[in-house]
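ZP: hey, is the pyridoxal-5'-phosphate complex queued? I don't see it on the tracker
AM: it wasn't, my bad. submitting now with these inputs:
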Amino acid sequence: MTAPRLEISLDKIFHNASTLVRRLRRSGIAVTGVTKACMGNPSYAATLLAAGVRTIGDSRIENILEMRRAGITAPIALIRPPMLSQAGLVVANADISFNTELDVISALSDAARKTDRRHAVVLMVELGDLREGIMPDDIEETVGHTLSYPNIDLRGIGANLGCFNGVVPDAKNMGELSRLADDLDQHFGASSPSITRDVSGGNSSNLTWAFSGNRIGRINELRLGESILMGIDPLHRQPIEGLHLDAVTLFAEVIESKLKPAQTYGALAHPTFERNTTEHHHGTRNQAILAIGHQDTDPAGLTAPSDIDVLGASSDHLVVKISGRVTKVGNEIAFQPNYSAVLRAMTSPYVTKVFQQRQDANRLT
Ligand SMILES: *Cc1c(COP(=O)(O)O)cnc(C)c1O
């Protein structure tokens, strides 16, 4: 097999997704399974659907097109506010989009009317993390306008915390989202009973809040990407009980393995990628080079086997120190990538991606 290579165990993904779906169902929360870190891979999406997610969510229309081309017919939400220039593509391929700008909703409405479709809209509310979202004071007016656009169905409201500034989802901000849903129902409910059908509370950062006995209120959906893929809660970087942490593995091949001095020699200036070269070392060490670098992954996000230390990387070389059995040229070493390393590897054309089908994949349709 070729290297570098990302292997994704869909058995483990199925386990992680179905475990989270089951736990959240107890609180009346449905899951949107987020596929963006896997570039909308259709086998990945099908695995999430088999595990019980209600909707697929992706932030890029290209990924949604890929899933549609592969025959995924489940509801798909574009979870990043659409580009104005892509309104037509969005309406043609996504059932739902998350929005914050009336100009965009207006363009979605035009595109839907022209093609005789309907398009569902979730309005995102700002709750303090300062990424996308309508300020809470403006939500009522925005709802009023949204309801007036032809071929647009207002489906609900949502929020996103954690991703940008690390603001923690808690009883206070989730309570505010619930209250906004109640207020909107009170104000508009008579004319439009289902405008807050979906109250989408957030992403994997919301799991601690969801599992710690807080009042769930009106929140009835979470959008989960990283927790399913990595098995961790991204806010605290802690493993989630019962989930696989090793669904994704990154393999790289050894292209040099030698005994080398532990200390550089010659005058020093700036290396291409800054690293700590001022530390002094004595003697020699077993050093290997792997054919993987910044063009393939985020080297800082790799966890190596226990007898290997990553010393640093350049564009195409990862240099490691080996304290255990010396590795030979041609051997592969398996790394545990974090989310950042997975993202970079998944989008690098140099890295082969292997989605390992589920053992019981015949049950998957
Ligand atoms: C990426 C993203 C998600 C998923 O976040 P994870 O932390 O990977 O679960 C959810 N909602 C929005 C709007 C996103 O951009």
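AM: back. The pocket of pyridoxal-5'-phosphate is lined by residues 34, 36, 59, 79-80, 160, 203-205, 223-227, 234 (CB under 6 Å).
ZP: great, adding it to the tracker
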